Amino acid sequence: MDIVNLYPLSNYTFGTKDPMYEKDRTVESRFNRMREDFEKYGMRHSVEGVLLVHEHNLPHLLLLQLGEPSSPLYLWLTEAPCYAGPSPSGTTFFKLPSGELQMGETETEGMLRIVNNTLGREDGMKTDWKVRDVVSNWWRPNFEAPQYPYIPAHCTRPKEHKRLFLLQLPEKALFSVPRNYKLVAAPLFELYDNSAGYGPVIASLPQVLSRFNFVYI
Amino acid sequence: MANTADDWLYNDDLDVSLPGRGRLDTDSQTLDGEDLLDDMLTAPSSATLRTDTPTNDDELLGPISHDTTDTIIEDSGSARYNADRKARTIQARIDANLTSQGVAMMHGGLSIFSREPNRKNSFYIGNMNWWTTDLHVIATVKDHGLGDVVCLKFFENRANGQSKGYCLVEVASESLAQNAPDKLGNIEIHDRKLMIAHALRISPHQFESKCNQAKEQGTTPVFSSNSLSSSPGQLLGSTGSSGLAKTSTVKTTLPGVIPPLPNPIFPQPPRPPTIPGFPTPPFAGLRPPGLPDFASMGLPGIFPPPFPPIPNASSINPFTSRPGGLPTLPPMPPAALAALGSAGAAVGSDVTKLTAPHLNPAFLQDMSQSGANMAEMLAHAAARFRSQTAAFSSMSVSGGRASPGDRGKSLPNHPSDEEVSETNQRNKAISSSAITRAMSDAQAGDYESAIDTLRMAITLIKQSVTANSEASQIMIQSLQDCLQGMEQQQQSSNASKRYRSSGGGMGGGGGGGGREHLSSRHIHETMKDRERDHRDLRDMREMREMRDIRDVRDFRDDRAMRSGHKISKHHRDRSRERRR
């Protein structure tokens, strides 16, 4: 039985750092770069990190929220619609800390590198994350948005393979959040059956994480 | 790794108060309340298990006691000691099943969840946080002098199981329930002032609206770049779900308290009424070979498997007790119609307005047995059918909405609306055609067959699914009047032939006129009432559908499925799950 320790949200403190922009600013450029990379290097390997805390004896998932709020920052909490896609009053979007593996890098190394880049502290001290299990796999059969938790039968060359890892957080930590993101803690019931709001990858996490025995410390 | 958390389940030393695996609650029951936690930690059962199977050396434990929650000694030389103690704490939690997969068994009496609270002794507690647990509620109720909770029901979002923040609590007596608002009115749980209400029907709605409001304004835990100025490490707000995803708000505003409306269309296998003296196969066998296009049905229901029609009755295609309003009337093979010609058109036209002429072929067969003129019968039916087709095609559609309940009667076998309306229409057809037939027979002097016809019709209607409905009763009554008249006529065979074949009841002698007029008007009025009922019911049903969004979605998915549209697997799974 996999036992994972979760700590309350209050154990963690949050700071800010410089904005971290994605390599591809537009959807089109993203897929173009994917095509070029595919020709050079083959299938892209991505990793994403699942970071969990707990509140009220329920696991909460840390998500990065990206997007243009339509109203002043202190009001966006209640007003910004949070579809994973275009919406009338602004585009906002949730994602996990993620990135692409580099050549020759193992998954664990890559995961730690990415999560330190995204949320790691800048004052030289290292956050003691531990990469635990693979939680799920998703494949992208074409240079398009759809991805599936299996390789479709007709496809022998998926274009991207994404792996989600559960990360064990230390008991206390400081996270530095890039200025262009907000860090959100979403309770699992918020994600459950809500792929309209978060996309299939994140919305399936409650099911996928149910196999763990979380200890609420 | 050994199953440390599970060992207690299989250990024979278990205290009997611990429920077995089969009754595990799926939600974790870790407590925030100090006092309850203390109770837990002193429970002897969880402590004695550890000595059997140490998992690894670091975590060898002795009996658990309160000490595990003591402060950790900060001495530099005792880092390992601290680590040990912390490990023990964690292990203690695991042993005590204060984990996501564990279940805490605080209170005995799990029977409080096993039934619905009795409203008489109950009251609502509302305005709670979504994380306020049942144990908190029980403790609060007890602490404020209301005694033990007999039964408890939380109201939750169907979509994700989240508590709506209110619950229905049953206590030992009505007087205690009446006292509840006084005793608990000013109490707070988790910094939220409780709202207490008596168990009236409208009470849940006020909690629902409150719940929805709270969703709109709830704070979410966000750590934005500018949040350093605001409180960093801001904890989750009251709902924690509001701003995060709009769709969840939409979902959670579904009124969960409104009891799921019974789907008026019960998918049921068709049940042909049993007719004494008739072999059921011919009746049941008459499903039309070409069933109408399912896609255009647009109704969630299962359809009867098409039975092969028997040869002699293939000319008539009645729809007997089929769930599904028919957009088109039963297709009559043109050959049959041609054969029948337009004989008897005049006879049928002034008969009361009929909807789709659902002829009972068994009935027709009986006619042949009793020497009736089947061709004439069919001619009547065909003529009526043709003359009424256009006018009543829409009737059939709306006719599928009558609910037997509206008639104030409850049928033991709960037929679907469509079955009911089909049956009613058929009964109407039977009665009018029987009367016409009988009259023409009587006019021809053949009282025997006329009486038989009428008797047959009465039996058929009585046997039908809607036998208890008003309309059927009226029909039976008029048929019986007719029958009596017929018998009288038979007796006084020097019939004065005063009866008019207006399709109404028969009257002997002079007094028949008024009565027959009355009963024909009866039938006429019944028709009109039915039409109006159909319309009303259809509107009502549409309203109900719109209200319950989930049903509409199911409805659409089923329709899509049946019409062969590809619905995404996700949606299909969702609806499958919902239906389960």
UniProtKB/TrEMBL annotation, chain A:
It is found in: Nucleus; Cytoplasm. Homodimer (via N- and C-terminus); binds RNA as homodimer. Component of the cleavage factor Im (CFIm) complex. This is Cleavage and polyadenylation specificity factor subunit 5. InterPro entries: Cleav_polyA_spec_factor_su5 (IPR016706). It comes from Geodia barretti. Its main location: nucleus. It comes from the Eukaryota. It holds the Pfam family NUDIX_2. Component of the cleavage factor Im (CFIm) complex that functions as an activator of the pre-mRNA 3'-end cleavage and polyadenylation processing required for the maturation of pre-mRNA into functional mRNAs. CFIm contributes to the recruitment of multiprotein complexes on specific sequences on the pre-mRNA 3'-end, so called cleavage and polyadenylation signals (pA signals). Most pre-mRNAs contain multiple pA signals, resulting in alternative cleavage and polyadenylation (APA) producing mRNAs with variable 3'-end formation. One of its GO terms (molecular function) is mRNA binding. GO terms for biological process: mRNA 3'-end processing. Belongs to the Nudix hydrolase family. CPSF5 subfamily. GO terms for cellular component: cytoplasm; mRNA cleavage factor complex. Keywords: Cytoplasm, mRNA processing, Nucleus, RNA-binding.
From TrEMBL, chain B:
It is found in: Nucleus. Keywords: mRNA processing, Nucleus, RNA-binding. GO terms for molecular function: RNA binding. Residues 45-54, 485-496 have a biased composition (Polar residues). It comes from the Eukaryota. Residues 121-201 form the RRM domain. This is Cleavage and polyadenylation specificity factor subunit 7. It comes from Geodia barretti (Barrett's horny sponge).
